[in-house]
What does this fold into?
Amino acid sequence: MPDEMSRPLIRERGEGGSSRRLEASMSEPSDPVIGILGTGDFSRSLTRRLVASGYQVVVGSRTPKRSVALFPEEAEVTSQMEVASQADLVFVAVFPEHHSTLVSLKPALAGKTLVDVSNGLSITHDGPSNAEQLANLFPESCVVKGFNTLSAWTLQIGPRDGSRQVFLCSDSSKAKKSVMQICRRMGFIPVDMGLLSSSLEIENLPLYLFPSWRIPVLCTLSLFIFFYLYNFVHDVLHPYVTTGKSNFYKMPIDTVNVTFPSVALVMLALVYLPGLCAAFLQLWWGTKYNRFPAWLDRWLTRRKQFGLCSFLCAALHAIYSLCLPMRKSARYKLISEALKKFKEGSEDVWIDEDVWRMELYVSVGIMALGLLSLLAVASLPSVSNTINWREFSFVQSTLGYCALCMATLHTLLFGWNRAFQASRYHFYLPPTFTLVLILPMTVVLGRLALFVPCVALRLRQIRRGWERNRNIRFTLPEDDCGNGLEDVSNCFDQCQKRSSKSRDSLVPVCPLTV
Ligand code: NAP
It folds into this structure.
């Protein structure tokens, strides 16, 4: 038994004696013989995964003798022509610029499925794709695009780590189905992307560099630079210029720690601002069927990333704040304050207002961070997939607004009455917290405006399809309320005053746009 367990599934060539083919018990007679053209990194990883999944694999090389040692002994390494004739389905693991060197295999590959695994060099939106060019080269074969989004490494370690999805497309549904089957048996999840015309999109997929993160990250960095410079001018440069006091030691921690919460709060407000813009636009237009401007569309789809950037800044602020008392500068300041008080002969240094402000400020800050953590966790696909739409919108919208209110309150408590002290306006610049509060306060007030019953009702109607400029004709059995062209809402409003019986009997005939 221990001997059985220690026997590797795939044996390296030369291990344990002579080369052997795949054990008959593993490969079903109905399974296709799978060929792979090319003996590079991708080919080697693919061979291992296919052999481990029980397939019979033949690998085609220009120099089989040189490459044979790199493959497991269960796979046969032979000439390209031999593979083209033996295999039922062939993976083309060769760079696309060398596809043309395979044309001599055309007769042998006629009627067979070719899987193009190649990637492009750069993102392009103009075809033809590598797969379409391969299909032109081999018009008698069925080309399937796929597996290019998996790295050789992912293939080697298997689907338990890394991406499990394999995007596939082809003009032949039969060929696509057979590749899907192989895909599933290897433990991956095939994703049908339709016809071969989608291959350009699939080839571009591995080349994108965080496409949905670019704007949120740029926004975070820009806000960080802006607030850092603002705080530097306010807290470091101003005392130096006006009194000659050197506060440059504040730059690495103090200034950064005031900058992070500013960025976090503005980014959190930016999560909810596009939703408000969309709501007010719909109210303004009186319909939900107008398309939002492209910038708003993009912004709406990036809210999760904005929220996660905000969470990161808030978490860093919390860590920085915890580290504040550890600094030498903080200890020196504390001792010198105590000595000053001692020299002044003051015994009681307890200021009730300051104590309360700090207690509330810290408590509300912790709650805001807790809620933000909850939002961040709920945005993970593995978590959001387990909750329904109502739960998701409760967490992201209701709790999200609670987090925004808490964070705003945290900043208000920090500011306390300092916004009204002239000494806080350095170089005529307001303190950072007043500047930071503008956007979140606007968002919170905008949200409150949407709670006003008549506004909320109109928005709800719009979101259920009501349109201000659209006339809908209703036939009402008993009265003339809906005869002729009538605005659906007006008609509904008028009829609402009547009995529920007559309202229920409203029958829309045909919607007419005027
Ligand atoms: P590679 O290591 O350079 O292997 C390419 C193989 O192509 C060579 O080993 C060579 O094998 C064969 N070949 C056939 N005709 C050729 C010719 N005329 N000139 C040069 N080589 C020729 O490349 P790879 O990393 O395995 O990538 C192969 C394909 O997989 C590419 O299209 C790539 O875009 C795609 N891919 C790779 C990865 C990855 O992680 N590596 C991931 C996704 C997709 P013989 O000398 O034995 O004939």
